[in-house]
Every structure is written in C-alpha cells, then in structure tokens.
Write a structure and sequence with these properties.
The chain is an alpha+beta fold. The chain contains six helices and 19 strands. The strands form nine sheets. A three-stranded antiparallel beta sheet has the order 3-5-4, with no helix packed on it. The protein has a two-stranded antiparallel ribbon with strand order 1-2. The longest helix is centred in the N-terminal third of the chain and has 18 residues.
C-alpha cells in the first residue's frame, strides 16, 4: 500500500514532506530506472527492484537518519531531495555516467545539525566537527582551523581538517580546498565535486564524441557510448543496427543486431551468446526460447517478504510482511534483525553491542 501511495505522490507532482517521503519516492524512481535500463523486468518491478544505490549518499554513517532528524541533530533539505530524485529519473543507464550524476546531486539531502559541544552519536550529526566517543552519546568537537595542525588520515577531532572544505597538507597543516580553476596536486584538494585535472580543479573529465575511449579512460559524455571501434558515438535509436549491448538508447537492448525494447517474462528470445544479446532483462534468463525469471532475486523496499532472507541488503522483513529499512543507531526497535549490521536492539533502540556498559548520565 505504501508503495502505491508513493507512486501516486510522484505522479501527482507533490512535494517531499519528510525524509521518509523521500525514501519512498526514491524507491519508486529507482525502480522505474531499473526497468528502463534492463536491470528488472517491467512485470516484476514491484517485487524485484533493489535498494536504491543513491540512498547510501544520504546516510553515510551509522546513526539512524530519521531519529537524528527528529531529534534535530540532522537537517533534511526537501529541495535537495527533489534534485536527487530528478537526477535518478534522468541519469543515463551507463553505470559510470550515472554514478557521477548521483554523487553530484544526492549529497546534500541530509546535513549535520548538532553544534560544537552538543551530544552526538556519529560524525554525520556534527556541524564543522567530529563526534568524540559516540557509542555512549559523545560530544561534537571542532575540526582544526585553516592554518592549524592536522593529521592527513584518521586523525582525532581537533587534529583533522573539515573534509568538506579543507584538506591536510603533507606538512600537517589545514588549507582551504580550491574552487574550479585553482591549483591542485590531488582530488582531495578540490572543493566538491571538482577533481584535479592537469594540475587544476575542474569537473570530472568526460570523453567527447569521436574521441578514443575504453576501460582506462573516463566515461563518454552523456548521450554517447564507447562503440566497438573504441570511440564515443551517439546512442542508437529504435531499429538502428548495433553491435554492443550498451549501444542503444534507454529502454532498449541490442537484440539480433538491432536496437529494440527490452523483453519481459514470457517473451520469445534467443539464448545469449558473447555476440548476441537475449533481450531479457538482468532478472530473467532465456530458457526454452522464452524469458524466464531468475530464482532468488532479493526483494527491494516495500516489496512482499516471508523472512529477512527474501529482502535486499540493508532491509529486513517487517511484521506486515514487507521489506523495510534496517535502523541505525538510536532507531526504535523490538529485535536485533531490525537494526543495521553490527548493531543490536538494546533497551528498545539500535546500539553498538557495548551500549549497556555505558555509565548512566548524571
């Protein structure tokens, strides 16, 4: 029911009221993308779509995002959430091209909200600092300031620069990251989401039309693919002749040498060979000349389940018989399987195993 409600919201163009709304709409957008890109068959979509990969960009730490937002230790940004949803909808099917779009447009959905000196349970909650001793409820401690001493890797709070705007030099001093066009020697010296190209901070490189491409080059520009001659060329339209499976525009595969729509369960197909695609999506195989579902594909968010084993990574089978997101630190729970890996349900909330050893607050 929730999945249908989320789909209705997207279709109606309604705004995003909460992080939970965002997750539901993201699952719907992600599923539509998987169908378009041949990762899931259209008739299987409700049950076989996976957990959205861009979700990891909004919850990088161990804390439970919903709980942290509710407790004002994190801030949800609806406009950035909409930008992420649009990026998922419009991203190319090429994994490398799509990943650049997700990183660029899904990083600001949730940001830190706890100031220095505040109680915290993870680094992601602290504004301009890190969380010291988070297992029992730690303290947000500031990063080193520009010009201050730092540790290049794995330094403690107060010793390490803010990775979003500063970097630690080889001499152990914090410096401001460079904007586009600024000098650099490594990607970490550039502001998000620039990289170091020929000694200057710039956009991540892409290969242009007719230029050489391959496994050791950056991805082609959007709308292009690396063809059989090793050059970036425009994606092909329906009915165009093709050789490579990624040669066709979104929604199609190279079937029998021509670009045609992805097949689905029961469609007539030819068993795939290194030179010929079957046309069946990734969750199906061509068996006895027909596309047939591959067994044991894990169910995604809000799909039906009978046990945790039915659900995709970072999901569990909730009491209503549907796959739902496991909780991070501080998430309300009734049993361990509702908590993320390495966490336990202790005193009604997800925590690290040693939580019960924490001294009571004075």
């Amino acid at each position: 029911m929730r999945a249908l409600f989320a789909l209705a919201l997207v279709a109606a163009g309604c705004g995003i009221g909460s992080y939970n709304d965002f997750r539901d709409q993201l699952a719907t957008r992600w599923c539509a993308r998987q169908i378009k890109c041949g990762e899931v068959g259209a008739t299987e979509s409700q049950q076989r779509c996976s957990t959205p990969a861009p979700l990891l960009l909004t919850q990088r730490g161990a804390v439970d995002v919903l709980t942290s937002i509710s407790d004002h230790r994190m801030i949800f940004h609806p406009a950035n959430a909409q930008e992420c949803l649009d990026a998922v909808k419009d991203a190319p099917c090429d994994p490398a091209q799509a990943n650049q779009a997700f990183v660029a447009h899904c990083h600001g959905v949730v940001t830190a909200g706890a100031s220095s000196g505040s109680v915290c349970w993870g680094d992601d909650e602290c504004v301009g600092g890190r969380c010291v001793d988070p297992d029992c409820g730690g303290t947000c401690t500031p990063f080193a300031l520009p010009g201050g001493m730092c540790v290049p890797r794995d330094g403690g709070p107060g010793e390490t620069c803010d990775p979003s705007v500063h970097f630690c030099s080889g001499d152990g001093v914090c410096f401001h990251k460079e904007s586009q066009g600024g000098p650099c020697a490594a990607d970490e010296q550039c502001l998000f989401d620039f990289v170091c190209v020929d000694g200057k901070c710039d956009d991540a490189p892409r290969v242009k039309k007719d230029d050489v491409c391959g496994t050791d080059t950056p991805p082609c520009e959007d709308g292009l693919y690396c063809d059989e001659t090793g050059a970036c060329e425009p994606l092909k339209a329906p009915g165009d002749a093709c050789v490579k499976p990624d040669a066709c525009q979104a929604g199609m595969d190279c079937i029998g040498g021509l670009c045609a729509p992805w097949l689905d369960v029961g469609s007539a197909c030819t068993v795939a060979t290194p030179a010929i695609e079957s046309g069946c999506p990734a969750t199906q195989t061509c068996t006895r000349a027909a596309c047939t579902p591959v067994p044991d594909v894990k169910a995604g968010p809000l799909a039906h389940c009978d046990s945790d084993a039915d659900c995709d990574v970072a999901l569990y089978c909730a009491a209503g018989g549907y796959c739902y997101y496991v909780g991070g630190i501080n998430a309300v729970c009734q049993s361990d399987h509702e908590c993320a890996q390495d966490l336990q349900c202790l005193s009604g909330a997800c925590h690290v195993p040693g939580y019960l050893m924490c001294a009571p607050a004075m």
